[in-house]
Design a protein that fits this description.
By secondary structure, the chain is mainly alpha-helical. It has one domain (5-65). The protein is 82% helix and 0% strand. The protein is built from 3 helices and no strands. Helix 2 packs antiparallel against helix 3. The longest helix has 28 residues, at 38-65.
């Protein structure tokens, strides 16, 4: 399954973290088997970027209001 921006953006934090863990586990499994994991790695990077953006926004807004 290929992820798109709207799908990732619409995920809850829990769904995002769960999908990241699943992708990471799948990547490790594929690499152990010697199979190509590039597509999964790209999806994982998109998920990681969304996580970073979400928590950067929260940190920025906290420091701004204090």
């Amino acid at each position: 399954m290929s992820l798109d921006y709207d799908t990732i953006k619409g995920m809850s934090n829990q769904a995002l973290f769960t999908m990241m863990a699943n992708k990471k586990q799948t990547i490790e499994s594929l690499q152990k088997k010697g199979e190509d994991s590039k597509k999964m790695e790209v999806d994982f990077c998109y998920l990681m970027r969304e996580k970073q953006l979400r928590f950067r926004r929260k940190d920025s807004s906290k420091s701004y209001t204090n």
